[in-house]
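Table S2 (continued). Query chain:
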Amino acid sequence: MSEETEAKEVSEVKKLDIKETKEMVTFVAKLGMGLEASLDDDGKLSFGDVSNMMPALMSSGAAFAGAGKIGAEFKDMDKAEGKELCDHLASELDLKDDKIEAIVERSMTLGKELFMLINDLKEAKKD
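Corresponding output:
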């Protein structure tokens, strides 16, 4: 197989973007912010907190409509998309407690790096 044919096959295999994953991250970030706002008021969740949850509810349709594709997007994700996903979380998440927000963002970065390491190990075993 020529290098050109092999490169074409590789590019054809890499077809997925991270749209569905980003939509779920958006939902989770908005849910987290809604929970923070609700619990910050009185430490409890109640019907009166519905307004805090509206942004999450509004994004839930898109998040769950394509949720079945998220696993495939993760399997197909490259390093640039991993960074894009971390950047997306950072742009969507705005918690009042900056320390907690930084920990969440670092956790996402750590998760991405662990995922990429596992993929690198799988690729190394193929060779």
